[in-house]
């Protein structure tokens, strides 16, 4: 009877183990070997290796250990979990080669090993994962060629190999007709773009930027009617943009900067009405800016910088009312800046420098209240707003022969903070005419010498960086820039202008962290104005003056 009872107990234990399994400790948690189907532990600061005992989770379907501090290698024993359909080990410190045994996980749908330290080549056994829809190996140190067997992944939708050291993608990869996203940017691809790429008719996103691709852009890309994003920047591509690409009516972003593309910008680009980003910069494009480019009503970024573009800026440029960034610098543009630039009210950055444009900025620029960066000719202007206050800076203008920057202020309540820097480069400045007349000093250490530079059109007076106040006097307007205050003392600033022997005085007190612009009387043309600035910090006062002829 005793033996019979013991036998029944052992049978019960065996059956219980078979049904309910046992618990094992992994990653600081306990998991049942039979019932655990999912491990979901992202963002848990786990710092350990992946143990071989993971093979005991025989019914595991999904494992997500992303964004942790895992290290070591992937154990080949993981291949024994035949039920696995999702592996996400991204953003860890896992190293070694990708185990070829991973090709035995025939149920795998997603494999994400991005942002780790894997090296070696992509195992050809990955081509056995016929159910795979997402393969993410970006930001590792994987080298060599992409295996041709990858063409077996007929269900693959998204593929990311960016940020590795891959040297070749096989033409067989173009047989992945279900692929919608392909990211192979920032590698070392030394080849031409395969002409078979036109077979990838489902592709919507293609990143091949920052490689060593040569040859021309294949016209077969024009067959990819679902393409929305095309990134080919920073390669060695040459020849013209194929006109076939201009039939991609769904495309939203074209980035081909930093290549050796040449020829004229095709007028047919105006058919790409869905475009929001167009970057053709840093190439060898010639000819004029086609008027048709101004019909792209959705355009937000337009970069044509550093080419050989001639002619004038089309007057229709004002039709691009959604434009936020416009870079036309370093070309051979001539003529005037169109007045309807003022219609680009969403513009944040505007680069027109290093062209042959006339030195006149139309008064319509007053509408560009969101402008934070302006480069024009050899003059760089930065407008940095502490508080968005469109009423403060409502005009930037230019005058004859050299730039005159002025900010004419409307009503200022003294509460809005604005920081405005308008600095001509040193080559524009002329020799200053400076006289120094100290008023009062409490001690030698209380002296705060200022620096003056002047030209026929502007006067700059700057304190040393310890007190970092820069004052610009342009066409009778004062622009103050506050960089840093290292003192809690208020700075009193007195401006005296003497045009045509008539004295005009404006005094403003500038408390710390507040900037209040004032307007001086605008002198008649060709008037010589003696500008004197008295700068008081605490008990110390310094005077600087210079003669400026406003043309």
Strand content: 25-35%
Which secondary-structure class do the elements indicate?
Answer: mainly beta
Helix content: under 10%
* Rg on CA atoms, Å: 33 Å
Unreliable runs: 11-19, 378-523, 533-542
Number of strands: 38
Q: Largest beta sheet, briefly?
A: 17 strands, mixed
- Overall mean pLDDT stands at 73
Could you explain the architecture of this structure?
The model is unreliable at 11-19, 378-523 and 533-542 (pLDDT under 50). Helices cover 3% and strands 29% of the residues. The chain is mainly beta.
Explain briefly what this protein structure is.
3% of the residues lie in helices and 29% in strands. It is mainly β and 551 residues long.
């Amino acid at each position: 009877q005793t033996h019979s009872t013991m036998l029944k107990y052992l049978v019960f234990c065996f059956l219980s183990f078979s049904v309910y399994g046992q618990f094992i400790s992994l990653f600081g948690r306990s998991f049942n070997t039979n019932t655990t189907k999912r491990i979901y532990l992202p963002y848990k600061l786990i710092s350990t290796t992946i143990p071989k005992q993971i093979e005991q989770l025989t019914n595991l379907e999904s494992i997500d250990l992303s964004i942790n501090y895992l290290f070591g290698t992937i154990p080949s024993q993981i291949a024994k979990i035949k039920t696995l359909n999702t592996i996400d080990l991204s953003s860890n410190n896992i190293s070694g080669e990708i185990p070829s045994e991973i090709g035995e996980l025939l149920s795998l749908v997603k494999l994400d090993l991005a942002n780790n330290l894997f090296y070696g080549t992509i195992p050809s056994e990955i081509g056995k994962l016929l159910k795979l829809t997402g393969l993410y190996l970006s930001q590792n140190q994987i080298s060599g060629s992409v295996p041709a067997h990858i063409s077996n992944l007929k269900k693959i939708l998204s593929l990311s190999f960016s940020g590795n050291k891959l040297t070749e993608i096989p033409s067989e990869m173009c047989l992945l007709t279900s692929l919608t996203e392909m990211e192979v940017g920032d590698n070392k691809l030394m080849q031409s773009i395969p002409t078979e790429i036109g077979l990838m008719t489902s592709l919507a996103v293609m990143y091949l930027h920052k490689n060593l691709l040569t040859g021309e852009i294949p016209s077969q890309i024009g067959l990819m009617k679902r393409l929305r994003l095309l990134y080919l920047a920073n390669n060695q591509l040459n020849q013209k943009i194929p006109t076939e690409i201009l039939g991609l009516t769904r495309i939203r972003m074209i980035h081909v900067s930093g290549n050796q593309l040449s020829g004229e910008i095709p007028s047919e680009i105006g058919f790409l009405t869905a475009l929001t980003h167009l970057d053709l910069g840093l190439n060898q494009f010639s000819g004029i800016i086609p008027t048709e480019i101004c019909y792209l009503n959705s355009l937000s970024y337009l970069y044509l910088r550093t080419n050989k573009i001639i002619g004038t800026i089309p007057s229709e440029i004002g039709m691009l009312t959604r434009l936020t960034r416009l870079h036309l610098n370093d070309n051979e543009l001539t003529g005037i800046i169109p007045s309807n630039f003022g219609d680009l009210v969403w513009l944040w950055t505007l680069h027109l420098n290093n062209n042959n444009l006339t030195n006149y900025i139309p008064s319509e620029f007053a509408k560009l209240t969101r402008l934070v960066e302006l480069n024009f000719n050899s003059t760089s202007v930065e407008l940095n707003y502490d508080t968005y206050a469109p009423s403060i800076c409502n005009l930037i203008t230019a005058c004859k022969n050299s730039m005159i920057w002025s900010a004419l202020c409307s009503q200022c309540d003294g509460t809005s903070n604005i920081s405005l820097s308008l600095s001509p480069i040193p080559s524009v400045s002329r020799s200053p005419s400076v006289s120094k007349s100290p008023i009062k000093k409490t001690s030698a250490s209380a002296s705060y010498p200022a620096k003056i530079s002047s030209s026929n059109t502007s006067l700059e007076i700057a304190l040393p960086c310890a007190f970092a106040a820069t004052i610009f006097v342009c066409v009778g307007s004062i622009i103050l820039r506050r960089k840093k205050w290292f003192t809690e003392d208020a700075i009193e600033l007195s401006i005296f202008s003497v045009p045509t022997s008539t004295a005009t005085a404006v005094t403003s007190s500038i408390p710390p962290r507040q900037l209040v612009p004032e307007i001086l009387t605008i002198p008649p043309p060709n008037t010589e104005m003696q500008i004197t600035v008295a700068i008081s910090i605490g008990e110390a006062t310094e005077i600087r003056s210079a003669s400026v002829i406003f043309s």
